[in-house]
Amino acid sequence: MTIENTPRPAALGWDASWAAAFDTAARTLGTNGAAEPAPARVVAEHRGRYIVSAADGDHSAVLAGRVRHEAASRDQLPSVGDWVGIARGSADGTAMVRFVVPRRGAFVRQAAGDVTAAQVVAANVDVALVAAALSGDISARRLERYLTLAWESGATPIVVLTKADLSEDVDGAVAAASVSALGADVIAVSAVTGLGLETLSRRLVAGHTAVLLGSSGVGKSTLVNQLLGVEHQRTSVVGDGGRGRHTTTHRELVRLASGALLIDTPGMRELQLWTADSGLGSAFADVEAAAASCRFRDCAHGAEPGCAVREAVDRGELAAERLEHGHQLRRALAYLKRKQDDLATVEARAKIKSLTRGLQSRLRDKYGGA
Questions:
Q1: 138 and 183 share a domain?
Q2: Residues 46 and 134 in one domain
Q3: Which of 12, 141, 148, 225 could cross-link to 283 by cystine, CB 3.0-4.6 Å?
Q4: 85 in a domain, yes or no?
């Protein structure tokens, strides 16, 4: 299947690389005698049903049983931004998702609550827009968490400081955020005055996918409407202190007039890392650069002699709070890894018990006995 005869997927980011990956997935996973699958992109998800966009338009879709059965965990099921192979033909026009094309990357967090599980917020994104409101107290530590996961996803992060019209020192806020957003651009925008909107729009390239992330009430829905030029997302009245109320209820991929693609997401009340070793290195590149001069390669940047990182802190070249937060994130990842390993052990034991019981049952059926 070529780009030329799939104009709609091409408008959704389809390219020669995706075409090759799709053909490989189709051959590997097979169709079980069904019609040849067509490429489509997941643009929305609603309680187990999907909206997918294919060459002939948008379709409601459900998962084939095989896809659900063979997924080792919830994060392996389709998410907004994924490319999938679909087959059509049901009486009500519903498409069937037969396989998921392997992702190029994904923004993944620890699922909210007490469960130990990954949640894919958006798949196959090129740019991660991390929104924070200038009308509130911008948390440097929260920005670092978002940026760590953004770098881990393979996307290029951009910090978007919204509601700039409510700030008395926009330049100072941009400078402060840039300290935590090392390696990422910081753009202040205002939906009221139009400040920064053109600059941000230029960073959203036709055929490339951006994801908009941030806490509830920072103005993401208003920003989406501004970028679209239409009232697409419902917004709420700004309350005291310039803080809006959460309005986005589901993830959705929308198409901008420029040809760029944007995934809007609900506000996140908590953001815990899932896996982010390389993301931490990128988000804390200043720490990594200083660590290259430490006397010991395994320096923990504590009380070890010859620690170049602690020396940078003492000279005022590196904020002590930033170093400590990097330590906290690494400890959190180590703790989560232990929980993941424990969970995997429990699941493996349960699987062995289930297989053993099944074998014993078959042996009793075949040879008799208690």
A1: yes
A2: no
A3: 148
A4: yes
Q: What is the domain extent for residue 185?
A: 106-264
pLDDT at 274: 67
Q: Same domain, yes or no, for 89 and 130?
A: no
pLDDT at 349: 66
Q: 137 and 230 share a domain?
A: yes
Q: Is residue 300 part of a domain?
A: no
* Residues of the chain below pLDDT 50: 1-7, 234-246
Give the separation between CA 66 and CA 71, rounded to whole angstroms: 8
- DSSP-based three-state secondary structure for 141: helix
Residue 242: the pLDDT is 44
- 318 near 284, Cβ under 8 Å? no
Q: Give how far Cα 254 sits from Cα of 92, 142, 156, 249, 262, Å.
A: 25, 26, 19, 15, 5
For 22, list phi and psi in degrees, rounded to 5. -65, -45
Residues 121, 324, 142, 208: what is their CA dihedral angle, to the nearest 10 degrees?
A: -50
Per the structure, the count of domains in the chain is 2
Q: Among 238, 264, 290, where does a domain finish?
A: 264
The answer to whether the CB of 189 falls within 8 A of the CB of 196 is yes
pLDDT in tens, 309-356: 999 999 999 988 888 888 888 887 777 677 666 655 655 566 666 667
Instruction: With beta carbons less than 8 A apart as the criterion, state whether 284 and 128 touch.
Output: no
Residue partners of 1: CB distance under 8 A and separation at least 6: 19, 22, 23, 38, 39
pTM here? 0.78
Question: Can you tell me the distance from the alpha carbon of 216 to that of 166, in angstroms, rounded to the nearest whole number?
Answer: 17
146-165 core/surface letters (b: 16 or more CB in 10 A; e: else): bbbbbbbbbbbbbbbbbbbb
**pLDDT over 90 percentage in the chain:** 45
Q: What is the CATH number of the domain that holds 120?
A: 3.40.50.300
Question: Where residue 55 sits, what CATH number does that domain have?
Answer: 2.40.50.140
Residue 210 is encoded by which pair of tokens?
Answer: 């951006």
